[in-house]
């Protein structure tokens, strides 16, 4: 009995030794390799790690085989990790696609792309200082950041460059002037609540201004100027009702220039 046990153990060790140097080749290509130093290769003849896979790795849920995790590289050569339902081809949780991370999408387009609801205790934005919405602007040739824009009564959901004094249809300021970027841009793709240009509705933003109504000082209320796209100080408070774009935070002594505005439509 003892001799048979020793013989069986020797046979097992011999088999393991043979497996440890085995290669499985199919149609001229290496399918799997197990080396003598404990490295396993799949799709590669000379694995350089404990588990070396040439190609993609797929993990399937033991309960629902449609729930699958893929790990590999996409057509652009970027690392790719995704969890989705192969039955419906819908994303489940997370996609890591090269430089981009997607939650609820298989094809993230920005550094963090979330399809669905995002919940957080604190959101700190360090790249801009105003809250903007996206608008299309009629006659947009020649427009530039800092211009004041007004509601276009002939085109629902769109804006136009403000071009009259004390314009009560004033809607906001084109964001991005003076090196100050929008902090948040809102919109809904494929609807009237969308557009090409970010328009600041609140926050701090630089605006084009002139001194047609007198020098501008910090704290002055601002309204639209007769000069297209420009702001001026309020001197007629009765006419300014509903036409105020905000308060000046920097001065403008003479002529035309940029004034930092705390946007507050009134």
Walk me through this protein's architecture.
This protein has 266 residues and is mainly beta. It contains 2 helices and 21 strands. The protein has helices at residues 2-20, 237-240, and strands at residues 23-26, 29-34, 40-42, 51-53, 57-60, 67-73, 79-85, 90-97, 100-103, 112-114, 130-135, 137-138, 148-151, 159-161, 170-174, 184-186, 197-210, 221-224, 231-233, 244-248, 256-264. The strands form 3 sheets. Strands 11, 12, 13, 14, 15, 16, 17, 18, 19, 20 and 21 form an 11-stranded mixed β-sheet that branches. A 6-stranded mixed β-sheet has the order 5-6-7-8-9-10, with no helix packed on it. Strands 1-2-3-4 form a 4-stranded mixed β-sheet, with no helix packed on it. A hairpin with a 2-residue loop joins strand 1 and strand 2 (29-34). The longest helix is centred in the first third of the chain and has 19 residues, at 2-20. The model is unreliable at 1-20 (pLDDT under 50).
């Amino acid at each position: 009995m003892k001799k048979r046990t020793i013989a069986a153990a020797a046979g097992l060790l011999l088999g393991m030794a043979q497996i440890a140097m085995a290669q499985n080749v199919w149609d001229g290509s290496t399918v799997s390799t197990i080396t003598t130093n404990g490295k396993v290769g799949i799709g590669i003849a000379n694995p350089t790690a404990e588990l070396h896979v040439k190609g993609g790795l797929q993990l399937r849920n033991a309960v629902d085989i449609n729930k699958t995790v893929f790990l590999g590289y996409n057509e652009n050569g970027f690392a790719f990790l995704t969890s989705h339902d192969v039955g419906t081809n819908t994303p489940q949780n997370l996609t890591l696609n090269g430089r981009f991370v997607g939650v609820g999408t298989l094809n993230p387009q920005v550094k963090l792309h979330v399809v669905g609801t995002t919940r957080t205790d604190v959101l700190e934005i360090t790249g801009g200082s105003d809250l903007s919405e996206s608008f299309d602007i009629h006659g947009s040739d020649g427009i530039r950041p800092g211009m004041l824009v007004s509601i276009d009564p002939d085109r629902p959901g769109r804006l136009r460059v403000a071009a009259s004094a004390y314009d009560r249809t004033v809607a906001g300021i084109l964001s991005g002037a003076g090196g100050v970027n929008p902090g948040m841009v809102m919109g809904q793709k494929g609807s009237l609540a969308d557009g090409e240009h970010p328009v600041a509705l609140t926050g701090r933003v630089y605006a084009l201004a002139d001194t047609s109504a007198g020098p501008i000082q910090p704290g002055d209320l601002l309204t639209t100027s007769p000069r297209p796209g420009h702001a001026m100080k309020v001197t007629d408070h009765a006419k300014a009702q509903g036409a105020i774009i905000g308060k000046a935070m920097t001065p403008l002594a003479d002529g035309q220039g940029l004034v930092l505005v705390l946007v507050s439509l009134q």
